[in-house]
Amino acid sequence: MHIKINSIDTNFSTLSDSSSIPKQKTDLNNSELNETNSRRNSNDGTISTNKNVSIYGYDQIKHKKRIRKRESTVSGKRVAYENFTTIDWNHDFAKDRNRRNKVKKRKSLKGRIYLIYDACQSWILVILIGIVTGLLAAFIAISADWISDIKEGHCKSGFYLNRKFCCWGNPGYQCPDWEKWSDFFNIHHQFLKGIVNLFMYTFIACLATFIAAYLVREFAPYSAGSGIPEVKTILGGFVIKKFLGMRTLIMKCIGLSLSVGAGLSVGKEGPLVHVGCCVGNLCSRLFSKFNNNSARLREALSAASAAGVSVAFGAPIGGVLFSLEEVSYYFPMKTLWRSFLSALTGALTLQLMNPFRSGKVVLFQVAYTRIWHIFELPIYILLGIIGGLYGAFFIKMNMKVVKLRKFSWLKKYPIQEVFVVTLITSIISYGFLFLRVSMTQLISNLFRECSELESDFGGLCKKTQIKSTIFMLLIALVLKIIMTIFTFGIRVPAGIFVPSLAVGALIGRIVGILMQLWQESHPDLWIFSSCNPDVQCVTPGVYAFIGAAAALGGVTRMTVSTTVIMFELTGSLSYVLPVMVTVMVSKWIGDAFDKDSIYDALIDLNQYPFLDSKRDYYSDAIVSDIMTKVDNLIVLPAIGLTINDIENILQEYPFQGFPIVNNTYDKLLIGYIGRSELRYTIDQIEDIENVDGTIQCYFTKKSPDAYGIGDPNQQQKFLDLRPWIDSTPYTITPNYKVVKVLELFKKIGLRHVIIVRRGKLVGLLNKKDLLRYLSTLKTE
Amino acid sequence: MHIKINSIDTNFSTLSDSSSIPKQKTDLNNSELNETNSRRNSNDGTISTNKNVSIYGYDQIKHKKRIRKRESTVSGKRVAYENFTTIDWNHDFAKDRNRRNKVKKRKSLKGRIYLIYDACQSWILVILIGIVTGLLAAFIAISADWISDIKEGHCKSGFYLNRKFCCWGNPGYQCPDWEKWSDFFNIHHQFLKGIVNLFMYTFIACLATFIAAYLVREFAPYSAGSGIPEVKTILGGFVIKKFLGMRTLIMKCIGLSLSVGAGLSVGKEGPLVHVGCCVGNLCSRLFSKFNNNSARLREALSAASAAGVSVAFGAPIGGVLFSLEEVSYYFPMKTLWRSFLSALTGALTLQLMNPFRSGKVVLFQVAYTRIWHIFELPIYILLGIIGGLYGAFFIKMNMKVVKLRKFSWLKKYPIQEVFVVTLITSIISYGFLFLRVSMTQLISNLFRECSELESDFGGLCKKTQIKSTIFMLLIALVLKIIMTIFTFGIRVPAGIFVPSLAVGALIGRIVGILMQLWQESHPDLWIFSSCNPDVQCVTPGVYAFIGAAAALGGVTRMTVSTTVIMFELTGSLSYVLPVMVTVMVSKWIGDAFDKDSIYDALIDLNQYPFLDSKRDYYSDAIVSDIMTKVDNLIVLPAIGLTINDIENILQEYPFQGFPIVNNTYDKLLIGYIGRSELRYTIDQIEDIENVDGTIQCYFTKKSPDAYGIGDPNQQQKFLDLRPWIDSTPYTITPNYKVVKVLELFKKIGLRHVIIVRRGKLVGLLNKKDLLRYLSTLKTE
Questions:
Q1: Which domain covers residue B232, as residue numbers?
Q2: Distance between CA atoms of B73 and B93, rounded to whole angstroms?
Q3: Residue B605: alpha-carbon gap to chain centroid
Q4: Fewer C-beta within 10 Å: chain B N or C terminus?
Q5: Among the entry's GO cellular component annotations, what is one (chains A, B) (predicted)?
Q6: A677-710: per-residue pLDDT in tens?
């Protein structure tokens, strides 16, 4: 045994999930022909289901010399990734290239048809994702609406109908079929009526969130929260099993309907990205191209998150840009086009489903008829500043609450917390019109021009009571901010998009009303000279619209996506420039406090292994300062290890993989083998009955006798592990600067890099160690 | 002399542009203190203006051993890139990181202020780019308008006024100040009038394009054509000097006004990207951060191209997406935000300038009042198919014409060709209303609903003469296609955006009118059941709009950008989904014929060294198959070369750089030095009077005496070239697959990669050789 037995590396140590590995047994006595074929196919980088592992006698080894040199360039076969590990983008791309190469080489008719199918797979997949996500979004929208309405009463013609459908065809507020709870319980006393309605309102809300919280805790803990930070981490190349599974999907959909319907200060829009990604992940299982390739899967997930935003806001282009700007890590042009298609299909599906029977996908349709004036620009910039400040403030406060929730006694009582938050929210909201209506209704009313509002909404347009309106808006604003800070992060599915829009719209409307007052009281001021005296000059609805964009920009720090989403939300393009200005200012102001968006802050807090490509690091360190030195690595010699030795190493050390060297004295690097692959091979061998644990393994091109092992007279058996080796791992020299290596990790998507000096192994640096080092840099 | 003297590499061999290098002389007798300081600062990767090169005696070398180990990790100092070479992204990023690192370390007040300025530099730059591009776009628009109008007549109240401004304030077509040429020449005979007007129309057009072509040929040949393929190549990391210079900018602006004003079938929108990039390049010279760093410069150019499209169409978001989807090679988030700001500033400037006095940036304002019906979707898809086919056809035909122009006798007569094309175009256009009006007017009229049209445009809305209208549209379509095919590529500034939109709009309007006819003649068909009988069901203007998107998509193969540009062009968001469907279909159909967009096709034709990140290659080859083998490389030994030797090597071999090895027997790789750097150093030394050509140079950490050279008793002098070496070049082993290396080139932006086996140099692969190999793959 030449193996070094030290340990420093601290990777996750879950054992390989063997259920995902084809469990085909292999014969001890393969015919030579099969052997050669299997070898010849071994550079496809995929797991062929037979002849994965083979043991053969010395006489067969000589034939191996005939293997074309080319086969030494394989990146090694690979089995599925373990949970909580980072993926190796580069290997997966290589695997996919090999697969396509193989498909391309099939010249038969069947092969050609398969080639066409193969080329279409991704398009079919993203269309499927779009359709399913669209259907789910419609379901969530309808059921959340129903729960929201049922809090106030029920429909006599069918309990499953929400107020809108119950009253379909009845003009105005006349609706005989819709019965308030006080009427249902036959209460006539005016005060009691109020009490009963309040009680039912609160009771149903609490019941809904209780169910949501319970279901989440019991069946799918991953479905709580927004999901976007985790999706970002997964798209960045991390494996979190079950996060995108069927259970999570179901619970997310149900929980989302319940928490949004209950009237919590949460949106359903952000979590739809998570829903989309679950759909993406589940649909991908139908297509081999994506199911067996974690990097390709992430391309599909990027498209899925575009579909999520697309159906959330009816904003297909906004969805694509959201996927690009916020969640995706690797976003080549192909993914752009697929996201485009996926978002398109989702929006089309939603439009055809027409869940709101409005015939529109646009959520807050407005039609601003007036153009903006130059004198308004400073006010827009002011809104941008306020939005940026709000974003920074919200992130800071919410992080404090989240930390409290995560690290104090509170963490033991998630359901109780949800209950209390709902109770308080419901009681407060019941008294305020601005808070009682659903947030989309609130925003939609705040965006509108007074001339467009059907009935006066909370006195927004009554000039006579302008002071009290402003006061009410201010109170609603403060309450909304507090509720949002405490609500975002509780253990039910909950998004932050719409609450941010609501806060911003409230701010904007207040500013807009004040501006309008000023202009109307001093119409002769020189700054208002561009106003046409016959027409209303200042439109408070526009300020609400721009304020909403500013707040969303401040919280999420997106620019292009925020702008486009705002347009698609309202269907109005006349305010492109003001919105762009505001969003840019809001981002700058927010970034001046902290560069992290709410999602990045959550990623940091949860210490997800996410390599943020937006962040710059400054360091003079070189790789040899932070790498795991060769003395602390477990290295495998190319020849000389028995199956038992490998079994022992695997059981003793949790490392994700092992460098292979010619021998433990020279330590000339030969390749790298992943833990999962080694585990899989050894498991297969050990499944064979009566296997001899002293069978020697070899990882090298040279036949074992070159090393003086294996007496040609004895039919000694060897285990050939070469197909599982990555014989061209990325290597660097120890004097590379860390920041230069960081670029490699970011751009190539490495999982680890091997450090050699003149061919000799001197160390290894993996992504997690690099991230750990970078986090120390950041705290400095 | 141990130097290998073979040659295979065939890089461009222009000598270094020494004008861009600070020509500071250095003393032969530096004080030791200065020496050490200069050494200590040597890892900044930039050219410090003093003590760049130094020769010192042996006694000083010992002190060098005290140099911290860290300094061996520099990527080497670098001087400016030579013309027609590819840039080394990675080195430039490292250089920038070092620069920022240095700035961050300055703790004085001045340092802090500089830090803030440094952080703002890029924002200031992109704002500046936006403003200047906006101003230039306004200038081009106004002057093209004027030339276009002057063809038909002149303004009596001022020859510099175009028709619109001349007639400002006059209602309808009443305009006493505007005088037709026939009136100017006092001609009364009806037939002669027509002849004179036609003559003047043709004469002024030909004169304008003649001037344009002459100016282009004489002063700035690079200003011809669209410029987008070259901009793409430059952004992909290639150096084409003067392509973005002041002369090119001026000639492009003047030529563009002339060629567009002359009524050629060209647009000014695409070339505005080139204008934007020229502005970007020139403005960057004001900021050291960008001026000295080719990779950072490209980030600014990405933002500039966004500003270009933004001001071209009044489409700021479309501009950002165009930059992302079509022209940019490296587009990190930072660039996205900067492009956003640049596009925003450009559009704001244009709006404030208000060159058309319409108060809008929207070019073809439409307000479609009706929603689309499901039965229209197949027709939209059909339009997508037609658009895709047109795109493929146009690219194929235009390439044939371009090839003819480039490789036949025609290439000797560019000005004559322009003249002939203009002559034919003018004569044909004069007779047809659809072709005679400017293309933007044509498109704008085709997009409009009949109810919106001020006066009936060419009988578009006359139900009585529908057949002749369709016939006229068809003829206009055919002529437009032919003219565009022959025009795009002539030696005047010319874009392809607007001609594509015009062709598409013509196709769409024809289909729309036919569709409307069908629906109106069979209103009871089941497919039309969703139509409201009281309202017009089919809007031909919408079909024109969608057809235009399809044709633009077919020619440029953009999806998201096309969609967004179309919305921003028209200010109408109600048709998001149909446009998305159409654009996607158009792209698919076009791609089915050839994956190349018009710009990619031009890049291929001109054999620009552009590594298309969208294209996939399949190859089993490994690096050792295509690399330049060590025997064919000029390698420099770390010690033993005299200044005269290096001078000889530089004069004899045109290679872009030289690997440095410990000695020419072992060939252990020590680093890499670029040609320009070596040239610069040697030039500096040779400027020193009485320099001894036999002075030894060394590239290694070890002092020369370790190699047995340099007698300590003699005060022998050495030239230290270490600061100029990249001591951590990217290295790979020879068994890497080419496709894996390709990823490195694409993602890291390498210029070359060095191939080593166990520390020993075995070869080198540079970007151009790789591109050459890839082009053979493609033709297979």
A1: 126-353
A2: 15
A3: 16
A4: C
A5: Golgi apparatus
A6: 888 888 877 776 666 777 778 777 655 554 444 4
Q: Are residues B423 and B300 in the same domain?
A: no
Residue in B with minimal Cα distance to A90 = B740
Which residue in chain A is spatially nearest to B103 when comparing CA positions? Answer: A618
Q: What are phi and psi of B486, to 5 degrees?
A: -80, -25
Domain boundary among B606, B626, B644: B606
Instruction: Kindly state whether residues A161 and A288 are assigned to the same domain.
Output: yes
B247 Cβ neighbours under 8 A, 6+ residues apart: B219, B220, B223
Q: Which one of B580, B614, B759 has the shortest CB-CB distance to A333?
A: B614
Using DSSP's 3-state secondary structure scheme, residue A633 falls into coil
Most confident segment among A31-35, A191-195, A580-584, A775-779: A580-584
Whole-complex ipTM:
0.83
- Least CA distance to A349: which residue of chain B? B577
Among A344, A626, A722, A780, pick the best mutation site for testing chain B contact (most B Cβ within 10 A).
A344
Q: Within this chain, do residues B590 and B639 fall inside the same structural domain, yes or no?
A: no
Cα–Cα dist B199/B434, whole Å: 19
Residue A82 DSSP label: P
Enter the tokens of residue A655: 């490392």
pLDDT tens per residue across span A163-178? 877 877 766 666 778 8
Give the tokens for residue B289: 């951060």
Angle formed by the axes of helices A377-407 and A466-487, nearest 10°? 40
> Between B568, B577, B727, which is nearest A344 by CB?
B577
The Cα of B82 is separated from the nearest Cα of chain A by a number of Å equal to 24
Residue A100 maps to a domain? no
Distance, CA of A226 to CA of A256 (rounded, Å): 10
Give the CATH number for residue A43: 3.10.580.10
Chunked into runs of 10 residues, chain B (780 residues) has average pLDDT values of 29 30 32 34 33 38 35 50 78 80 81 85 93 94 89 84 78 74 86 90 94 92 91 90 93 94 90 95 91 89 94 90 89 89 92 71 70 88 96 95 89 90 92 85 86 70 82 93 93 92 95 91 84 82 94 93 88 84 94 90 88 78 88 85 85 86 86 84 73 75 52 60 83 87 85 89 89 76
Residues B549 and B649 in one domain: no
Give the predicted TM-score (pTM) of the model: 0.85
Question: Over the stretch A616-629, which tens digit does the pLDDT of each residue have?
Answer: 777 778 888 889 88
Q: Looking at A353, A387, A421, which one is the last position of a domain?
A: A353
Measured between beta carbons, which residues in chain A are less than 8 angstroms from residue B317? 560, 563-564, 576, 580
pLDDT at position B400, please? 94
**In a shared domain, residues B517 and B435:** yes
Q: Which residue on chain A is closest to B618 by alpha carbon?
A: A101
Task: Give the total number of structural domains in chain B.
Answer: 3
Instruction: Classify residue A364: in a domain, yes or no.
Output: no
Q: Report the distance separating Cα B559 and Cα A24, nearest Å.
A: 45
Nearest Cα of chain A lies from the Cα of B111 at a distance, in angstroms, of: 17
Q: Verify that B627 and B597 share a domain, yes or no.
A: no
Contact B72 A100 (CB under 8 A): no
Q: Taking CA atoms, what residue in B is nearest to A730? A: B732
My answer on whether A624 and A742 are in the same domain is: yes
Q: List pLDDT tens digits, range A425-469.
A: 999 988 888 888 888 889 988 988 877 666 667 777 777 788 888
- In this prediction, residue A587 has a pLDDT band, given cuts at 50, 70 and 90, of very high
State the CATH number of the domain containing residue B583: 1.10.3080.10
Chain A residues with CB inside 8 Å of B760's CB? 758
Q: Mind telling me how many Å the CA of A130 is from chain B's nearest CA?
A: 13
Q: How many residues does chain A have?
A: 780
pLDDT of residue B552: 95
Residue B23 lies in a domain: no
Q: Which helix (H) or strand (E) holds B114?
A: helix B109-150
Tokens of B12: 């461009």
Residue B511: Cβ within 10 Å count:
20
Is residue B118 situated within a structural domain? no
Q: Are residues A337 and B73, on separate chains, in Cβ contact within 8 Å? A: no
**Do B564 and A563 make contact, defined as CB atoms within 8 angstroms?**
no
Residues A418, A511: one domain?
yes
